[in-house]
Amino acid sequence: MERRPVFIDCDPGIDDAVALMMAFQAAELDVRGISAVAGNVGLERTLGNALKIVELSGAAAPVYAGADRPMFGAPITAEHFHGEDGLLGAELPAPVRMPEAGPAWEALRREAEAWGGALEVVATGPLTNLGIALSLYPELAGLVRCVTMMGGAAAFGNTTPAAEFNVLADPEAAELVFRSGIPVVMCGLDVTHSTYITAREVEKLAALGSVQARLAAYFMGSGIKENARQFRTGGAPLHDPCAMMYAIDRSLFASKPCWIGVERHGKVTRGKTVTDAYSDAKRTANARLVTGSDREGFICRMMELFAGYGSEMPDEKF
């Protein structure tokens, strides 16, 4: 199988961590670089967390520091969900490796140029790094094959009534990405809330035995009760893993082409991703909206990916 080059832009974050661990076991993906951005927690934490997950996974992908604040406006964070450290207090070994020299947007440009249009980007955090890259290097739009993002929604929000967290954290950057001409795949709340993991499935994941599987189970299991109460889902939504799994195997998903833009000015609606997916007023499509998944197939493939880490029983307690 020919591996496709991928650059991962993220803000770890518990679900970013799970998505990263999935990527490192996917035979379909050649992870060329990872960039951290401020989002779920501040940049110092997200960068350190990315380094920790890379080392825990036995991966060799270089890690770059990105933006420590949105392009405009004040930062918003989500420590209430991810913990002060971004990883719910999980005690992971301090990383030995250091971040690579130079900012994330320079690394993305170099990789995109080196791959001559074949590089894919998977973005599981605010799109600030991509927004900066496109502002500095408009030609980048012709060098990136696609951006698969976790963010937005056609129907509802989870941080405000209108907006999903990653887009709300930097609406201007998100709008730049949608306007860039790069094919965008939006894995938003429309699909992530119906692609969930149940308590029983979390137990099966932990039973695989490896520290990576147990850590993923700890992270995913933490949100089951809260999401069932707040959003009436059947389990914990697999937000960032959805975007990563789409990059791995899009046959597990249903999607439709549509136009997507970002509301940036309304006091109540700022950060809302506006689509024409269900309206009569059609525009030229600039994206694909992912609308559903084969949930059972998703869980099966996720289990296979984590089984690749082996079955040793670690001493770590999560």
TrEMBL record:
Domain Inosine/uridine-preferring nucleoside hydrolase: where?
6-298
Which Gene3D superfamilies does this chain map to? Answer: Ribonucleoside hydrolase-like
Q: Which domain of life is it from?
A: Bacteria
Say yes or no: keyword DNA repair present: no
| Annotated coiled-coil segments of the chain | none
GO molecular function terms noted in the UniProt entry? hydrolase activity
Entry keyword annotation includes Hydrolase? yes
Q: Which Pfam families match?
A: IU_nuc_hydro (PF01156)
Q: Per UniProt, which keywords does this protein have?
A: Glycosidase, Hydrolase
What PANTHER family does this protein map onto?
Answer: INOSINE-URIDINE PREFERRING NUCLEOSIDE HYDROLASE, URIDINE NUCLEOSIDASE
What name appears for this protein in its UniProt entry?
Answer: Nucleoside hydrolase
- Taxonomically, what lineage is the organism? Bacteria, Bacillati, Bacillota, Clostridia, Eubacteriales
